[in-house]
Amino acid sequence: MTKFTFRRTAAILTIATACTWTAMAADEKADAKQKDTTLPDPVAIVEGEKISRADLEQAFNSALASAGINPSDLSADQKISGYRDILDEMIVDKLISRKASSVKLPEADIEAEVKKVKAQFPNEEVFKAEMKKAGETEATFRDTVKKMLQQQKWMEAQLGDKVKVTESDVKKFYDDNKKEFEHPELVSARHILILTPEDADDKVIAEKKKAADAALKRVTSGKEDFETVAKEVSEEPGAKESGGNLGFFPKDRMVPEFANAAFALKKGEISKEPVRTKFGWHIIQVTDHKDAGTMAFDDVKEQVAGFIEGAKRREAISGILDSVRAEAKVENKLPPAPPAPAAPASPHAHSH
After folding, report:
1. Among 182, 212, 225, 264, which one is most buried in terms of CB atoms within 10 A?
2. What is the pTM of this model?
3. How many domains does the chain have?
4. Which residues contact 50 (CB under 8 A, 6 or more apart)?
C-alpha cells in the first residue's frame, strides 16, 4: 500500500520550499526583514479545534532543521510563505485525521509498522535518540504510526476503483506514445574498476594498471566468474552488492573511452586490455546487446500500468483533499501570503 501520511508530506514539501527560500534570501533580506512576523495564537481553527502558534513554530523549525537551513537567513516574507505552506498541510492533516479516527486497526498492524520503522535505524539506542530529537516519546510515536495507518486505510477506501488501471488503458497509452518507447542501440555490461586519480604520476598509473591486468587475467582464465571477481576487487562504490552490473545503457551515457570499448564488444566478450578513463582502469564484460528499436508492449506494460496508476492516484487524492477542505469549517488566521517573485523565463524541460 502506498504510504499516505500528511505529516510527512508536509515535511517534504516544506524542505523543498525552504531550499528555494534560501536561494532567494540574500536578495530580500535587507529590506524585508524589518516586517513583523509575530504569529497570532491560535494560528487556525479547524472544525472548532485550535492549531496553536507553538505547534506551527515547532513544525516550521523542525522542517528548516531537517533541511539544514538557519531561520535567521530567511526574510519576513519567506517566513510567512513557509508558515502558510506548513499550516496548510497541518490543516489537511487534522481534517483527514478526524475523518480517519473511526477506522479500526488490529494492534498487530500497528506493531508491525512500528517494527518496520525501527528496523531502519542501526539499533534501539539510535532510534530513541532520534525520537527524542523529534520531541517524540515511544507512546506519541506509536500514536503517530496509528494515525498514519488510519489515514492510509481511510484514503484507500475513498480511492476505491478510481485508481484501477485496465489493460486497454495501458495499451492506449502505449499506442498513443510510441515515440516515448523508442530506444537507441543499447549494451548491458559489467565492469571492474581500479580507481586511478586523473592527475596520478606514471608510477601510480603503472601500479593501478598492474592491478587491472591481474583482475583481467582472473576473469579470462575460465576458472573464475566475472561477477565474483568484481565483488572482490572492483573499487566502484556499491560493487560489492552489484558485482559491477551497469544494466542497459546507450552509448552517450558513458564516457567516450568506456562507451567505445563496450559497444565494440559482442555479447559475452571481455575487453582484451584494461580501458583507461578519467575514473581509472576498467575491465568490461558485455552481457547483452539490443539494436535500436521500439520496446515491445509486453516488456513495458507493467511500468506503464504503474505510471498510469500513479497519475490516477495523485489526481484522485487531490480531488478528495479539495472536497474535504471545501466542506470543512476552517479559519486560517495567518496574514496573507506575499506575492511570489517573478520566475525567470526558461524553456520547459520535458522529461519522461
Report:
1. 212
2. 0.59
3. 2
4. 42, 44
